[in-house]
């Protein structure tokens, strides 16, 4: 048996003020945030949809049953540094608050055991992870059937596990990993266990069709557009006195230009561009000027996009 510490990274428990701040700090993806909280809440506890149906239609619509029959699996897919992990790790907070759970824990599956080459290891790891998360719930529902304890199983960097078994170069152990995930999510659905599985991947087009068809929703993440870049910069530069026109020009420069193919990612902006800007001004012991902002933007090299396919 694998110890929990080998199976999972740090387990997070919600509601949590830190997660609330991280969730709030994600900008430009409000439509994804809203829909994800709605989807996840209903997947964890369909009771709320039944209440909505009873209120507006006097009973449970067939349509509600259709929604309830879906597999509690959500895929977050898209380019690097666009907020997939950040959202997956923080969304438990609004969900726990929305559906008033006594406990909601996030178990991040650690795929570090991958690649040791032990036959059967991937399958065992995934199967044990599903079992552990299920058994962590104890008594999941109260006597009225309302969900009290729920969990999220996060399979981040799921490219290897979620990748299509059709890919020729795929190692058979990885194929078995996909099968184990499919068995795991199917059993959660069959037994109506309030565990939501979230998978993150950079390769939406290489997702295994059996995983893709089960997903209740596949959310696609992209790099920020110009308006979203303005939002990230304006938020971070609040209090510096830099003019809106300079921020807008910097945001334009951080987009695709004739010299660069792609725009900066959210993480480029937050983890490289803005810290560099501040540290440069700090090093020179001067305030940040609009001109410094624009010239840094013009010189910035964004992270190259994640290439899908057979690269
Ligand atoms: N929408 C956003 N708004 C503000 N900041 C963001 C946003 N998305 C990402 N970031 C910033 O970028 C950092 C990296 O994001 P995250 O780790 O979630 O990316 P990712 O999509 O999981 O990338 P990868 O595919 O490389 O794992 C976050 O810590 C956060 O600071
Ligand atoms: Mg990530």
Strand order of the largest sheet: 1-3-4-5-2-6
Number of domains: 2
Count of DSSP E strands?
Answer: 6
Along the chain, the helix and strand elements come as: HEHHHHEHHEHEHHEHEHHHH
Instruction: Give the count of helical stretches.
Output: 15
What ligand molecules are bound, each kind once?
adenosine-5'-triphosphate, magnesium ion
Largest beta-sheet details = 6 strands, mixed
Strand content: 5-15%
List key phrases describing it:
single chain; 311 residues; alpha/beta; Rossmann fold; 2 domains; 6-stranded mixed sheet; 6 strands; globular; binds adenosine-5'-triphosphate; binds magnesium ion
Secondary-structure blueprint:
Elements: H1 4-7, E1 12-14, H2 17-24, H3 30-44, H4 47-57, H5 62-68, E2 71-78, H6 84-90, H7 92-98, E3 103-108, H8 121-136, E4 149-155, H9 159-162, H10 172-190, E5 195-201, H11 209-214, E6 215-221, H12 226-237, H13 244-253, H14 266-284, H15 290-299
Parallel strand pairs: 2-5, 2-6, 3-4, 4-5
Antiparallel strand pairs: 1-3
Helix pairs in contact: 2-6, 3-7, 8-10, 12-13, 12-14, 13-15
Bound molecules: adenosine-5'-triphosphate and magnesium ion (MG).
Describe it for me?
It is a single chain. With 311 residues, this protein is of the alpha/beta class. The chain folds into 2 domains: 4-221, Rossmann fold, CATH 3.40.50.300; 226-299, no CATH class. Helix content is 50%, strand content 12%. It has 15 helices and 6 strands. A 6-stranded mixed sheet has the order 1-3-4-5-2-6, sandwiched between helices. The longest helix has 19 residues, at 172-190. Magnesium ion is lined by residues 84-85, 156, 200.
């Amino acid at each position: 048996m694998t110890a929990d510490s080998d199976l999972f990274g740090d387990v997070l428990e919600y509601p949590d003020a830190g997660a609330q701040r991280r969730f709030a700090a994600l900008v430009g993806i409000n439509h994804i945030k809203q829909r994800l909280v709605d989807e996840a809440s209903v997947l964890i506890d369909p009771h709320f949809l039944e209440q909505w149906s009873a209120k507006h239609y006097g009973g449970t619509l067939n349509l509600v049953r259709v929604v309830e029959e879906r597999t509690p699996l959500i895929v977050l897919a898209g380019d690097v540094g666009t907020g997939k992990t950040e959202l997956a790790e923080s969304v438990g907070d609004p969900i726990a608050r929305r559906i008033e759970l006594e406990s909601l824990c996030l178990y991040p599956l650690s795929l570090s055991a991958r690649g040791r080459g032990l036959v059967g290891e991937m399958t065992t790891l995934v199967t044990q992870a599903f079992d552990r998360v299920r058994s962590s719930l104890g008594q999941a529902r109260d006597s009225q059937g309302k969900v009290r304890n729920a969990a999220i199983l996060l399979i981040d960097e799921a490219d290897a596990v979620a990748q299509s078994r059709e890919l020729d170069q795929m190692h058979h152990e990885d194929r078995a990993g996909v099968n184990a995930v499919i068995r795991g999510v199917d059993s959660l659905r069959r037994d109506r266990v309030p565990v939501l599985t979230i998978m993150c991947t950079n390769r939406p087009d290489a997702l295994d069709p059996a995983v893709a068809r089960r997903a209740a929703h596949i959310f696609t993440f992209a790099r920020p557009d110009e308006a979203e870049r303005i939002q990230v910069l304006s938020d971070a530069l609040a209090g510096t006195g830099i003019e809106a026109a300079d921020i807008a020009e910097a945001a334009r420069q951080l987009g695709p230009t004739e010299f660069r193919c792609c725009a900066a990612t959210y993480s480029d902006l937050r983890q490289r561009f803005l810290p560099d800007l501040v540290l440069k001004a700090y090093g020179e012991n001067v305030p940040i000027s609009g001109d410094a902002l624009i010239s840094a933007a013009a010189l910035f090299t964004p992270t190259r996009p994640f290439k899908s396919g057979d690269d």
